What does this fold into?
Amino acid sequence: MLFFDADGKRVETKKEAEKVVPFVSEYRVFNVLDIEGFTAEMFREEKPEAIPARIEECEAILSGNPHEVTKGEPAYSPLFDKLFMPDLAEFESPEKYYHTYFHELSHWTGHSSRLNREIRNSFGSEKYSREELVAEMSASFLAAHCGIVVEDLVENTAAYLQSWINALHGDARLLMTAASAAEKAANFLLKTEAKEVEITEEMRQAA
It folds into this structure.
């Protein structure tokens, strides 16, 4: 707009003006995609990635058992007494992260300086199969203790357990031995004595 006073002289502000004359301005506009070096992505607002929530009860178990952990595929090294775990964000859910962590931490309890189980076994052997049962059942006990109940996680755990049970040919004696060791491992991580803590029926069913 242009502003003029009573004598027809142009002034700078509307406050001084007696007459206001609108006019059309021309602006040259370009499509950003036609400008070399620019992309549409440069103008999109970046949304921060959602940070998965940590579960307080699970974190208490992890922090209550000082252990060495390095980023990597889930595993426990008896030789170096070290855990390997990916970041929480790499899992589908915090529940699956903690269940996996509990599995590896349960292996950790078998070290000679702790519960002294036979954990340096050949893959596929009877002792290896039994130790896998111990770790997975212990992880299930701990998950139930922390209130973790996820349908597909329970189904996956059941299938995993069944695979190792099959490896033991369904030997009831070996299964009972593994279940007892799993209970001791869970109690160790919860900082309790086995005689003082009872694994509830609900926790047993979770395994």
Q: What stands out?
A: The helical segments are 56-63, 94-108, 126-145, 151-167, 172-189, 201-206. The beta strands are 2-4, 10-11, 19-21, 68-71, 75-77, 82-85. DSSP finds six helices and six strands in the chain.
